[in-house]
Amino acid sequence: MNFLLTGGVIHTQDATNRVVDTLAVVDGRIVFAGERDGFVAMRDAACAAPVLREINLGGRVVVPGFIDSHTHPEMVSKSAWHTRLPWTDDVTEILDFVRDYAAAHPREEMPFLYFEYYPSTLFGDGQPTKELLDAVVSDRPVLLQDFSEHASWVNSKALEYMGVNRDTPDPVPGLEMFVRDEQGEPTGHLLELVQLRFMDTMYRNLGWTPPEQMTPETLETFLSFLAKSGVTALFDAMLADEDVVKSLAELDRRGELNLHYEGALRFRSRADLPAAIARAQRLNAEYGGDRIRVNALKLFLDGTNETGNSAVLEPMCGGHSPADGAVDLGEIQMDVAELHACLELCNRERIDVHIHLVGDRAFRTACDAVALARASAAEAGESWDTQVTFAHCELVDPEDMHRPAELGIFINWTPHWSGGYFGEGAIAHLGEDRWSRMYQFNQMVDSGAMLTLASDVTTRYEMERAAPLFGMQVASTRVDPDYPLDGNRYPGSVRPAPEASLSRELLLAGYTTHGAKQLRIDHQAGSLEVGKLAHLAVLSDDLFAVEPGALGDIHCEAVVFEGRLISGTLPGW
What we know:
Layout: E1 3-6, E2 9-11, E3 19-20, E4 22-26, E5 29-34, H1 36-45, E6 53-56, E7 61-64, E8 66-71, H2 73-78, E9 83-84, H3 91-104, E10 113-118, H4 130-134, E11 142-146, E12 151-154, H5 156-162, E13 177-180, E14 186-191, H6 199-206, H7 216-228, E15 231-236, H8 242-254, E16 260-266, H9 273-287, E17 292-300, H10 336-348, E18 352-357, H11 360-379, E19 388-392, H12 403-407, E20 410-413, H13 427-436, H14 442-446, E21 450-453, H15 468-477, H16 504-511, H17 513-518, E22 536-539, E23 556-561, E24 564-568
Helix pairs in contact: 5-6, 10-11, 15-16
């Protein structure tokens, strides 16, 4: 439908951040963005102006469609069958729940039990053990997911069916690994999604597969929620199942794909990088198009601050130390030289790189590698084409804050983490001072870095937190309404430091223009400008007028993708 929006407060997010009252759309593209008088003059001067349906917005606010630049549609969709644990710090309560659930769902009905989540701080300085779970369920595999998503807890049957024992090597010692006792036996505590390498073996041994097939229908719940929330583009930060892009391509063929999709495949080392590049190129050739692209790779450079395996510049605080007695600086997947080599190859293949990193040593290592790779390209007379994004960047040394701007690195943050979502779990490993310096981005932005924003949701459990306006609320207040910090320790439940809150102008840019640049779709999305596709959201309230704590209450009354109404409605549509 060709249409004319009038009487609105339309944030174009163009180079000068113009706010206009009129927007005209023809054949899915914007043909005018300005004041109504200007449109009338343009129409009157045209020889054969198209007929437009006029819709009076009645003062409503319009923004470009939001871009979620790091999320997990595959993981969210595959988690639909998982069972939610009660949220408690009482281990006995969790074990009782698991026992009762198993009794109500016999092995014949559910050969494998998957629960989410237990708090990362559940065991304090200790760790979960298989024996605790064996005491409540011993007839089948059981897995409980840590709230951080970077650790899990399994029983003996799970290890048995995975084929894991004391002789099984850790894929990446210190990171992707099985925690072991003094005799080398796996304890039942798993780190950094190591189980993903062994799940197929477990399913084969069980003679059973979980209901996780990726189809257009199984993706629908999450994609519909994103559409309702105003999201018109996303970056899939760990594409594993090829049926995801196959299903998206089928939706596209039907004319039912209502967003732009960019997928990233995981690699772990320089050795497996060529295979990952080849697979991405094949998937892009088979399924890529105007709305689907697979041209990025994902690397986990370190672990998490909550599990104590992030890579840090100063030693971890107590709790554990390396077996050789060395100072504990956490864990890192590769050194500067190897990452430099990986980036060089990616640049030659013109493929983008998305790096998970949370510790300040990981941040510095990655900056050093990017600097070397860019210098190598310049010395060889080659252009630098790879876009590098650092995801999370939770702890950054002040001396490194200026480097992303200098190196052209995108900084990707999950704004709904800005409050108390992960609580005080990292304090045990980092200490109070470093914990209070986490989640601070204004200095990087002030130096010229581009901040993109994302939900990073991984399960149905947290799907509703993917709403960008909810993320804006938490990032602007440093308060999580669902997971508030102790008000006795932190006045108003505000996470230190209050001055690290992000402005609404930055939040809107991070979810629109900046995200479009990260996904390389800024020529057609991210702002409401002539020639670009009409991706937009009509809001129930003015995000610049409501109180910061009310941003999450704003909803999208209507969402448009390529000129088509994909969610909500408007009078006169």
